[in-house]
Backbone:
C-alpha cells in the first residue's frame, strides 16, 4: 500500500509526552502563582520556607492551614490528570498494534483472506501492517497454487497410469496382437510418466533449496544449453542466437543449467511453424545478473502469459503436437529462480512470441 510519509511512532510518543509534561508544568506554575505569588509586589520574589509556615491572619495571608490541603489537592489532580492522559495517549498510539494482533490471531485460525488495511500516514506500525498484509497475500496465493498443483498433479499422474493399465489389459486379452506396436506405445507412455516424475522431483528439490552454491557464469551455462538443444532447434527449423559477456552469479550449476535448458526448450517448441528464432542473451548489472530468452511465435495475451509459470499450464494451442512435454518447464524455471533469490518475469512480444527475463544476484567475483 502506498502511503504519504509521516512521523515515526517514536517521534509521536516523544512529542506527546513532551506536550503532556508542558501542560502539567503549566498547571504547576499556575498553582504556585495562585497560592504563593498572588497579591505580592511586582518585583522579583522568590518564596522561601517562611511562606509555607506563615499562618492565615485576618489580612488574608496564606499558611499551612490553607496551603497544605490545597497543595495536596493540586498534586492529586496532577496525578489523576497524568494517569488519565497517559492512558489515553498510550491507547491512541498502540491502537494499530491491537489491530495487528487481532489479524494475527485470525490468520493463525486459518483465515488467510483477512487483511489489516491500516489507514493513515506511514510510520512503524503501518509499515508492519503493510508487510503483514503482503505476507498474507503471498501465503494465500501460495496455498491456492499448491492446491491447484495437487489437483493437476493427481490428474496428470493418473492419466498415463490409466493408459498403461488399459494397454496391458488389451495385451492380456488379445493373444493375436502385434507385440511390437503395443510395446512401443507402452514405452512412450512409461517414458512420459518417468519424465513427469523426474520433473516433480526436481521441482521439489528446488523448492526446498537443498543444493550447494558455487560461483558460476550464466553466459557459459547459456552456451552449454544452446549446444545441447541445437539438434532440437534444427528439427523445428528454429535459428538460435546467443550474445553476452561474462555474467557471474552464485548458485547450483546443475539447477541453473536446467533452468536455462527449460527456457530454451520452451522457446524452441512454442515457436513459429517455420523459420522461427530464439535469442539468448546475458548481461550483468550493479546488483543482478540477467538472462534473457525470447522467441518468435503467435501473439499471446497478458492473461495467458500470467498463468504459464503454474504447474501443468502448457497452453494447449501453443504446443507442438509432436512434443507435448509435461507442462512443468516454466514452473521448474520459476522455482529454480526463486530458490536462487532471483525473479523470473514473462512478457509477451508485440510481434508474437514470449520474452523471459531471469534476474539473479550478481557477484563481483570473476569466474575463471
Residues:
Amino acid at each position: 500500500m502506498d502511503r504519504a510519509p509521516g512521523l515515526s511512532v517514536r517521534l509521536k510518543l516523544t512529542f506527546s509526552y513532551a506536550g503532556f509534561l508542558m501542560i502539567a508544568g503549566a498547571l504547576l506554575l499556575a498553582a504556585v502563582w495562585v497560592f504563593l505569588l498572588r497579591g505580592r509586589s511586582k518585583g522579583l520574589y522568590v518564596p522561601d520556607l517562611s511562606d509555607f509556615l506563615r499562618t492565615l491572619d485576618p489580612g488574608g495571608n496564606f499558611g499551612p492551614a490553607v496551603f497544605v490541603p490545597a497543595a495536596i489537592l493540586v498534586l492529586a489532580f496532577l496525578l489523576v490528570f497524568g494517569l488519565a492522559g497517559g492512558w489515553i495517549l498510550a491507547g491512541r498510539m498502540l491502537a494499530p498494534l491491537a489491530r495487528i494482533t487481532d489479524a494475527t490471531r485470525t490468520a493463525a485460525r486459518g483465515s488467510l483472506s483477512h487483511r489489516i488495511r491500516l489507514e493513515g500516514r506511514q510510520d512503524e506500525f503501518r509499515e508492519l501492517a503493510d508487510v503483514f498484509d503482503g505476507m498474507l497475500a503471498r501465503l494465500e496465493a501460495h496455498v491456492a497454487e499448491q492446491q491447484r498443483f495437487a489437483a493437476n498433479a493427481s490428474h496428470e499422474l493418473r492419466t498415463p497410469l490409466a493408459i498403461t493399465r488399459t494397454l496391458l489389459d488389451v495385451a492380456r486379452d488379445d493373444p493375436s496382437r502385434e507385440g511390437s506396436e503395443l510395446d512401443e506405445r507402452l514405452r512412450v507412455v512409461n517414458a512420459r510418466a518417468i519424465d513427469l516424475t523426474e520433473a516433480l522431483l526436481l521441482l521439489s528439490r528446488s523448492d526446498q533449496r537443498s543444493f550447494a552454491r558455487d560461483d558460476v557464469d550464466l553466459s557459459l551455462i547459456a552456451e552449454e544449453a544452446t549446444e545441447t538443444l541445437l539438434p532440437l532447434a534444427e528439427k523445428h527449423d528454429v535459428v538460435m542466437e546467443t550474445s553476452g559477456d561474462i555474467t557471474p552469479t552464485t548458485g547450483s550449476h546443475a539447477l541453473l543449467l536446467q533452468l536455462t535448458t527449460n527456457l530454451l526448450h520452451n522457446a524452441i517448441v512454442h515457436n513459429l511453424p517455420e523459420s522461427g528464432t530464439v535469442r539468448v542473451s546475458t548481461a550483468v548489472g550493479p546488483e543482478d545478473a540477467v538472462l534473457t530468452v525470447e522467441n518468435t511465435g503467435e501473439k499471446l495475451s497478458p492473461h495467458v502469459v500470467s498463468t504459464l509459470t503454474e504447474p501443468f499450464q502448457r497452453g494447449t494451442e501453443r504446443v507442438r503436437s509432436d512434443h507435448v512435454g509435461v507442462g512443468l518447464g516454466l514452473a521448474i524455471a520459476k522455482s529454480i529462480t526463486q530458490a536462487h533469490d532471483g525473479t523470473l518475469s514473462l512478457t509477451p512480444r508485440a510481434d508474437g512470441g514470449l520474452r523471459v527475463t531471469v534476474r539473479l544476484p550478481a557477484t563481483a567475483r570473476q569466474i575463471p
Observations:
- Residues 151-208 form one domain.
- DSSP finds nine helices and seven strands in the chain.
